[in-house]
Amino acid sequence: MTLSLWHFLAVGAAVFGIGLVGFLTRRNLITMFLCAELMLQGVAINFVAFARYHGNLQGQVFVMFILPVAACEAGVALALFLNLYRRRRSLDSSDWQDLRELGVPAATDTEPLPKPAMEPDPVLTPAGARPTPAAEEVARV
To answer: Is the whole-model pTM more than 0.85?
Structure first.
């Protein structure tokens, strides 16, 4: 079985569609960013497929420029996400409504996120000390 242009276009469209659905349904900024990257990669697959079909290198050269820009974008976006998380301890997109433009009404969520259960952080035994019998029992469970 030979792969035709339509196979590559279907894969590119599927990757783009998965990214679009993920971007529209998720609220975490990192997940939204990764879905936007998926959409970009779906478009890149289509560029390469059309370039191969037409027998020229224009689509492939365009993808060669897209990939480094996407890598730089990922670095900047992750630095931005770290700063946003340090400021409010949340990456939920609805918590960042104050970043919208002036005159744009605030979006209201019909389903708020559930409150996470606060579990205590585990306490590790210092180096060289023997753990207590209670800690050993917890480790076995």
So the answer is: no
Residue 54 Ramachandran class (φ > 0 left, ψ -120 to 50 alpha, else beta): alpha
Task: Answer positive or negative: Cα dihedral of 30, 68, 4, 9.
Answer: positive
Domains of the chain from N-terminus onward: 5-92 (1.10.287.3510)
Q: Calculate what percentage of the chain has a pLDDT beyond 90.
A: 47
The tens digit of pLDDT for each residue in 109-124 reads 777 767 777 777 777 7
